[in-house]
Amino acid sequence: MSTQPATRVATSEFEVRTHGRGFIDIGDALRRALRESGLREGMALVFTRHTSCSLLISENADPEVRADLERFFARLVPDGDPLFRHDAEGPDDMPAHVRAVLTGVSVNLPVRDGAYGLGTWQGVYLWEHRSAPHTRKVSVTIIGF
Amino acid sequence: MSTQPATRVATSEFEVRTHGRGFIDIGDALRRALRESGLREGMALVFTRHTSCSLLISENADPEVRADLERFFARLVPDGDPLFRHDAEGPDDMPAHVRAVLTGVSVNLPVRDGAYGLGTWQGVYLWEHRSAPHTRKVSVTIIGF
Amino acid sequence: MSTQPATRVATSEFEVRTHGRGFIDIGDALRRALRESGLREGMALVFTRHTSCSLLISENADPEVRADLERFFARLVPDGDPLFRHDAEGPDDMPAHVRAVLTGVSVNLPVRDGAYGLGTWQGVYLWEHRSAPHTRKVSVTIIGF
Q1: CB-CB neighbors (< 8 A) of B56 in chain A
Q2: Three-state secondary structure of chain B
Q3: Using CB atoms within 10 A as the burial measure, which of B2, C12, C14, C47 is most buried?
Q4: Contact in structure between A111 and A42 (CB atoms under 8 Å)
Q5: A109 to chain B, minimum CA–CA distance in Å?
Q6: Residue of chain B whose alpha carbon sits nearest to that of A5
Q7: Which chains touch B (3 or more CB pairs under 8 A)?
Q8: Beta carbons of B59 and A8 less than 8 Å apart
Q9: Dist CA A43 CA C143 (whole Å)
Q10: Cα–Cα distance, A124 to B91 (Å, whole number)
């Protein structure tokens, strides 16, 4: 354990265009934000300003993992479930909110030696839960030195 | 991306009185904590010191969304489920712990220009999972400048 | 609310040897990381570099709570579910990824007066989701003063 110099904050934002329900790897945008920050040790908060998409860390090698996640959540939170009364925007409206609550709208990442301290098989994804394409805003806050 | 001055920590706590199972908007208490911190850019950790309530971000416009979330979780994690052996405090005891694990006891918020960097439709809620009223402790840690 | 001196970062890592599916209390390792950091006020990010185990906060008094969590997730995400196509490593392969997505690979903890600001009944656990033993890497990032 080593204690380090005084820390600074770096903030940035980017947009993600989604193509309806599915996963989008946001690793490139996150690496650019870190590189431009000039920070090398600390932590990052990645946050999306919506309630019907998620940010999450998942396996990045086999695309079938994301397909299985989609199949699992489609069964767990069915579109058009008569349980749901909030359906003004269609059968995927409330399921999108439930999925976002179950999987979260932010991820926290360690920063080590100028890179994210992720494992080999960890990717960071924006998960669009709505059937239609959307433009999603993501903010990055990095604190460190 | 811009890198900013050295950061400081601001800490505070507040209590939330719940009325049994349901959502309580904690936005006012969070905005007060930020205002009193004097910090304008950075990140905030909001944390509750319990294992049977949650903190979460959800849609803030239509109360039916929270009602649907409650209905969904009541079906997913049924009170009195014979699967559960930990029931010393009643049929809602273990379901409250499962709900807290599924939805989390903390939220992380970006801070931008002296406000939380939330989307228009995002609210921050304490979700009481027990049937009886409780007094819940929430801590706020803001790091920034 | 009080605003504090400039903050510093302390980083460390440790490994957890698991014995197949189950919970391991990582409180001792976390307290050691905090003690060695010399920091007393701020926040900590605890992060595991894997996609088939979780970090979570749960009830620490009655071991039956963890047994009930295990029973609940075994029913919610069944091993060998024919829904899953990603099964190269066995019937527990994809369920481990789903469990990790549902419960998260990091926890954020407030730091107060040289200790974690946890409630009396809150413990921090690594939850192994694979049937076989693994060695899991956990990183700790503490920012504060």
Answers
A1: 101
A2: CEEEEECEEEEEEEEEECCCCEEEECHHHHHHHHHHHCCCCEEEEEEECCCCEEEEEEECCCHHHHHHHHHHHHHHCCCCCCCCCCCCCCCCHHHHHHHHHHHCCEEEEEEECCEECCCCCEEEEEEECCCCCCEEEEEEEEEEC
A3: C47
A4: yes
A5: 12
A6: B6
A7: A, C
A8: no
A9: 8
A10: 38
**Residues of A in Cβ contact (< 8 Å) with C7:** 6-7, 143
- Torsions phi, psi of A133, nearest 5? -65, 150
Interchain CB distance below 8 Å, A68 and C86: yes
Give the C-alpha separation, B84 to A9, whole Å: 45
How would you write the pLDDT of chain A (145 residues) with one tens digit per residue?
Answer: 555 678 999 999 999 999 999 999 999 999 999 999 999 999 999 999 999 999 999 999 999 999 999 999 999 999 999 999 999 999 999 999 999 999 999 999 999 999 999 999 999 999 999 999 999 999 999 999 9
Residue C128, token pair as written in the block: 């192994």
- Locate B37 and state its tokens: 């911190």
Report how far residue B42's alpha carbon sits from residue B51's, in angstroms, rounded to the nearest whole number.
Answer: 27
In our burial notation (b when 16+ CB lie closer than 10 A, e otherwise), range A95-121 reads: bbbbbbbbbbbbbbbbbbeeebbbbeb
Mutate to test the interface with C, among B39, B45, B92 (most CBs of C within 10 A): B45
DSSP letters along A33-74, please?
HHHHHT--SEEEEEEES-SSEEEEEEE-S-HHHHHHHHHHHH
Q: Which of B101, B128, B85, B53 is nearest to C65 (CA)?
A: B85
Q: Tens digit of pLDDT for each residue in B16-70?
A: 999 999 999 999 999 999 999 999 999 999 999 999 999 999 999 999 999 999 9
Q: What is the value of ipTM here, to two decimals? A: 0.96
Question: Residue B64 and residue A85: Cβ atoms within 8 Å?
Answer: yes
Query: Nearest Cα to C19, choosing from C127, C97, C140, C106?
Result: C127
